[in-house]
Amino acid sequence: MDFTFNSAQAHAALTLMLTIRLFESKIESLFSSHIMHGTTHLAIGQEAVHAGVSPALDREDWIVTTHRCHGHTLAKGASLKAAFAEFFGYSDGLAHGLGGSMHLVDVEHHNAGSSAVVGSGVPLATGMALQLKRKKSNQLVVALFGDGASSRGAVHESMNIASVMSLPVLFLCEHNMYGMSACAKDMVSVEYISDRGNAYAIESTVVDGNDVEQVYKAVSDAAHYIRSTGKPYLLETRTYRFSGHSKSDKRVYRTREEEVAWLKRDPIEMLKQRMLQRTYIDEKDFEKLGQNIQCEIDNIVDEMIDHPRQLSIEEAFSYVYSSKEHGQL
Ligand SMILES: Cc1ncc(C[n+]2csc(CCOP(=O)(O)OP(=O)(O)O)c2C)c(N)n1
Ligand SMILES: [Mg+2]
Atom 25 of ligand 1 has which residue's CA nearest to it? Predict the structure, then answer.
């Protein structure tokens, strides 16, 4: 691969990936110690996709995420405080504490949010792209979806209409090898999901989703293609979730050997090794960076545990129906 980050880009990507990893690790420990409740879908191991997508877009571009949305939400600009507050159900959370792990939304940073319904964000993103085209905007929309979602009808219908109407949407498949306990090898009709672009006359490519430089370059190129041609693009990023599907998953559908093989391609370790080789960083800097982020996270969580601020019943009802203040159409 020809493309490499300069030192500032590499530091930014490493900081973001470590922040996402430590954020999710903290979430995991808060769920296991019953301080947080319900369920959550971690994307530990997929941080190169998070740090390679939003940073390669313009600030005004939109993303629509999935049930596995924490990393993309932070990468698009959400603050750690607003994200943690949402998990605690606090009124200063990203969705006023009403959404939780699977419903992070951050309109200020052009993140239209996520839903628990697999594949449902893709037609929404396609509709948003239609509206941007009608407004003659230069913005685009990234529709994130998984290997499991890639076989849903709504995803195929979206690709078809986006091609027919030339809509500025980047279909971005985060292929992490499994949809719950179902291995993509047994469930997806093609080896490469990017090949499905051919059926809809959509340009496509596949990249190593554990290599943040490759993901960043592919997203930059795809965004340039979409803006200059007005056509959609399909990008497949191949990665692996180190964690289980959700909180209670014992991972009986895959072997520990397979996991160890992927752990050797940890995206954070891969970038760190490159930065050490290029003398962008040394071991001490790396350790300090991790300690600083951990300290920031621990302080935020301690403060939140000490100062609960659930929204009132009256306020909760005020979000049920749209009002003029909340942006009626
Ligand atoms: C329409 C629908 N069908 C089934 C489910 C149950 N479900 C939740 S996550 C998931 C797997 C999705 O796999 P993939 O699209 O690869 O995303 P990943 O979980 O790997 O990020 C399934 C089947 C659901 N939430 N919505
Ligand atoms: Mg998957």
Answer: 117
Q: How far apart are CA 266 and CA 94, in angstroms?
A: 29
Q: Does a structural domain hold residue 234?
A: yes
Mutating to test ligand 1, I would choose from 44, 49, 118 the residue with most ligand atoms within 8 A of its C-beta, which is: 118
DSSP 173: E
Domain assignment present for 45: yes
In-domain check, residue 302: yes
CA of 195 to the centre of ligand 1 (A): 21
Per-residue pLDDT tens over the stretch 311-323:
888 888 888 776 6
Q: How confident is the model at residue 247 (pLDDT cuts 50, 70, 90)?
A: confident
pLDDT-based confidence at residue 103 (cuts at 50, 70, 90): very high
Count of the separate structural domains present in the chain: 1
Q: To test the ligand 1 pocket, which listed residue (173, 180, 236, 241) has its Cβ within 8 A of the most ligand atoms?
A: 180
